[in-house]
Amino acid sequence: MNILFVGDITGNAGMDKTTELLGRLRRQYKADFVVVNGENAAERNGITEKQFRDLRFAGADVITMGNHTWANAEIYNFIDREEAIVRPYNYPAGTAGRGYTIVDMGRVQVAVINLLGNVYVSSLPSPFTMIDALLEELKAQGVRIILIDLHAEATSEKIAFARYVDGKVSAVLGTHTHVQTADETILPKGTAYISDVGMTGAIDSVLGVKTELSVQQFVTQIPVRFAHAEGEAKLNAVLVTVDDKTGKAVSIERIQA
Ligand code: FE2
What we know:
By secondary structure, this protein is α/β, with parallel strands linked by helices. Helix content is 26%, strand content 26%. The chain contains six helices and 15 strands.
């Protein structure tokens, strides 16, 4: 099975690029399953219901989130009813939405889990302490293909986590830092890994934010209200090929479009 994962869609520039390209990429890479991170899609981060629908219509099977999940209050209108959107699993029981979803593809089931890291990004319970029980649960349900979007800042935390679950999941794909890393690999026991898939958003920007606003904050040291940059955009993604029978990854390839 070929799985296409698109890195953090940022603002309108990222949304336009994704809706324009996703169908073509899906055909070009013979992707059977598509996941996109959509936590920065809306103007002040988060995701609107229309954006969720537009991404689904464009070909996304599942949309993952991160630390900005709740930034746009519209999410409360649809997160409970839509199984195709996943917020971090670290939140306490009873939190709106779900931390993972299982998509039935007929021949196989695919689980998509969203987790937040701890280092410099969140004080929620550690992904390391939460994952074992969930993987046992998925194993008991016979789910072999498991993707984790690890939304985290520190490469050390992401690499350590991927090695912790190596062989137990198909892929650990890092998101959040918006810069695609060149360390894609298949770990010794068969888990595909990359520290960060990258960003889908405006090229002329600071991680998708208008350059002048980001620079102003660094220069003045006073918080600035950010806005997403516009203009020409790039799409960052990875293609992971997984053996359906074993759930182990066969290859991982970086994509820049
Ligand atoms: Fe984030």
